[in-house]
Amino acid sequence: MRVADRIDVAPARAVIGTLRVPGDKSISHRYALLSALADGRTAIANYAPGADCASTLACLAALGAIVSRTPPERDGDPAVVTIEGRGLRGLTAPAGPLDCGNSGSTMRMISGVLAAHPFLSTLIGDASLSRRPMRRIIGPLTQMGATIQAGPGDRPPVTIRGGSLTGIHFAPETPSAQVKSAVLLAGLQASGETQVVEPACTRDHTERALAAFGATVDVDGRTVSLRGGQRLSGQTLRVPGDISSAAFLAVAAAALPGSDLTITDVGLNPTRAALVQVLRRAGAEVESTVESHWSGEPVGRLHVRHAVLRDVVIAPDEVPELIDELPVLATLGTFGGSVTVSGAGELRVKESDRIAELVAGLRAMGADADERPDGFQIRRGPKLTGGAVHAHGDHRLAMAFAIAALGASGPTQIDGADAVAVSYPSFFDDLDRLARRDPGAGGRQA
Ligand code: S3P
User: Which atom of ligand 1 is nearest to the CA of 30?
Assistant: First the structure.
């Protein structure tokens, strides 16, 4: 599915209907990485269709895992991904650099896998990934026994020579699920025990996925412990819908009068679902129902209806569980109540500087918005006018601007809209299907 580079988004009155979002990006990466380290074959249904998770598969294939796609079980599903595992420390030296594309998750988490493999690998990425900090994984993985070099400022490319690792007790300063996961993936292949003590709770998909593949992981509050050398066995898995993708249309439904949106088969892992509380605090009517568990991950439906919006303050301790939803939650401020976020300095080192570019884009559309060193404030003001914005190669900014555009008086032109292919290639199709527009407003025009 190709998405146009420049898309015009017309205003909408409401979003109404039922939506299934693509498979969760975070969970897909983890299932793929653990499959490659497992003994036997793993089949992953509803694997995330975006470019990021394709980068992980391409890297694993270059490292000797046999990766294939078979036709979907249900119409509309992406293909089922099958991976023949190589067993712990069983991957083989790649013929060239491993291209992680735009995906920080791929680069950071696969580093934990490679840290235990006794060959040289070089990890590269696109212009955005090449600006992102890697010190956070280099520190602990070096302490465990790997030899790692990076470019100036500890930015990619990252060169890793793996070795015999020893488990560590690691207490990162910044909460990061990617860093926790890199250390746990290395710890699985190390001697002795590895323990990570997080400064704040982050998404726990790696812990749940390790258990799904048969490993024993102890979780005690914010401390995760894992004994090295545990063998994993191949599994049959299904990935829940991505709540971070669902967040875009959920925010639109909360913001536009008369909206009524049901999102089915979506992941409702409590370490990812803080969005629900924030939408309720903003005044929206949100029902969240867990219907089943898929390999240890809660899955269910979200039902979101509009109500008059209130001001929302997002405090620093809420940020780790909302980090990917902050750009779209900011847009609530352009529809009604203000949105104030602090303690979110990490947004500056995402796919773009998400504080600077978000505020610049919303202002270009007419918002009353301020940038702060570690956050932003979007104040309730007059209706947006629309205008021209740039996504700066950042999928979540492209989608956040598209949601803000629904509440504007005129159209919004989004340059770099094709960035949505990283996590949600069908985003603009879903938006057009669910948006209720006045006759003559037009839909998107590619
Ligand atoms: C992710 C963790 C978060 C998040 C990213 C995905 C993961 O990054 O922003 O989109 O899958 O573990 P950090 O670990 O840098 O906080």
Answer: 11
Residues with catalytic roles? 324
Q: In this structure, which residue's CA is closest to atom 13 in ligand 1? A: 176
Domain with CATH 3.65.10.10 in the chain: 6-22+240-445, 25-234
Q: Where are the beta strands (DSSP E) in 46-106?
A: 66-70, 80-84, 98-99
Closest by CA to 226, choosing from 241, 208, 239, is: 208
The set of residues, in sequence order, having a beta carbon less than 8 Å from that of 339 and lying 6+ positions away, is: 311, 312, 314, 329, 330, 332, 333, 376, 377, 378
CATH classification of 25-234, choosing from 3.30.310.180, 3.90.800.10, 3.65.10.10, 3.40.50.1360? 3.65.10.10
Rg of the Cα atoms in the chain: 21
User: What are 231-256's pLDDT values in tens digits?
Assistant: 999 999 999 999 999 999 999 999 99
Measuring from each residue's beta carbon to the nearest atom of ligand 1, which residues come in under 6 Å? 26, 105, 176-179, 181, 203, 323-324, 346
Q: What integer pLDDT is reported at residue 1 of this predicted model? A: 64
6-22+240-445: what fold?
Answer: UDP-n-acetylglucosamine1-carboxyvinyl-transferase; Chain (3.65.10)
- CA of 14 from ligand 1 middle (Å) equals 31
Tens of pLDDT, residues 311-329 = 999 999 999 999 999 999 9
Atom of ligand 1 nearest to the CA of 174: 16
